[in-house]
Amino acid sequence: MIVLSALMEKILVVGAILFLSSSANVRAAEQAPAATEMSIRDQIKAARAKDVLEEKSASVARPWDTAKPTEPVKR
Question: What pTM was estimated for this model as a whole?
Fold first, then answer.
């Protein structure tokens, strides 16, 4: 029988706990369901809805109303 010091036993116990907990995390990640991709139709619908929201939240000022005046031409 191998005789280990008290410190060595604690180190081995902590190491075993860390090993087992990390392997449990890996197993849980492998069992997680894969994210389903959106169909082309759903992607188009989402893009159109996003465009509509952007248009609604866009500024109502016209670009030429808010543009800074240019410098006069020097002759």
Answer: 0.34
